């Protein structure tokens, strides 16, 4: 066999390839333009008032209402009233009227919260018992049926709603509505109802719950009780507040509609009970069409917040759809208003010097007549 020497090959020497580094232009990205995130704006529930002012008002209410709740300064006196707070309204021009009201309240050991329409009114009771209504700075006496007067009424409703939402039951009493006798019976009667109000009609003379006088259904917004235990009642008052502000401008309101919190509360009641207007005649016609046994209690239509209504009684509650709207009028012989006819001085527990032409002087004359005026000076 042939013997071949293995071929010896020199290893190939390859020069390493030199590659120029690729030069890439940096990518230029346009900055993304993001719209700034706007937090959803929460509006104040009180027209014309900032959210910050409403929050301060809410904080003041929460801090001060509990100290005044119970209706009596001696909190052990009637424990069943521990969540009821009585509020009265003042401004600087009403100082003497308030002093007189407070003197009578002090006689019975009553406790209360003051809602002030201007900051000067804090001097009447001190800061711990006074809440200044937001958006209000009205020191002077305001004539009835003016825009300013109407808005002040709406602000009262604002305050009542706030207290109900906090957890209070509320007695609203104007400073010209003065207690003559111990009112505990009224306080306890009130708690049996969702809405318990003084009649404003002069022809409301007696309270017969089985055969009610139509005149007694006309609301007086200066003396009433309302509870927040039934949430439908709070929603009903919110409807009244909306209506109140919508009708505050006297130029845009028809005489049949009326303005202010009194008319707003009347619309609230009438709409809930399916009564077409606030007029005496409308109630008269309505009650004549309702059979006597049903005048006290009846079902409401589907648009109502309550499912049924009961006037001055709980007798029919078992057969009524829930929630039941319990409402009642104060007996006019015991709690008369300014123009009520046939007022018997010795029977009254409280007298409301309202609906009197002549302003504060006319109120003073009526209070003096019923021995309920002390001169408007502070009591010791």
Which helices and strands occur, and which strands form pairs?
Blueprint (H helix, E strand, L loop, with lengths): L50 H18 L15 E7 L4 H13 L5 E4 L5 H4 L4 E3 L14 H20 L2 E5 L3 E3 L4 H7 L4 E5 L19 E8 L4 H16 L14 H12 L7 H10 L7 E3 L8 E4 L12 E6 L20 E3 L6 H11 L11
| Unreliable residue stretches | 36-41, 290-294
Largest sheet: 9 strands, mixed
What is the rounded Rg?
A: 34 Å
The overall pLDDT, averaged over residues, is 79
Helix count from the secondary structure assignment: 9
Shape by Cα distribution:
elongated
Q: Helix proportion of residues, in percent?
A: 25-40%
What is the rounded distance between the termini?
Answer: 146 Å
- The counted number of beta strands is 11
The main sheet orders its strands as: 3-2-1-4-7-6-10-9-8
Instruction: Please provide the ordered H/E string of secondary-structure elements.
Output: HEHEHEHEEHEEHHHEEEEH
Structural class of the secondary elements?
Answer: alpha/beta
Strand content: 5-15%
Summarize the structure.
By secondary structure, this protein is α/β, with parallel strands linked by helices.
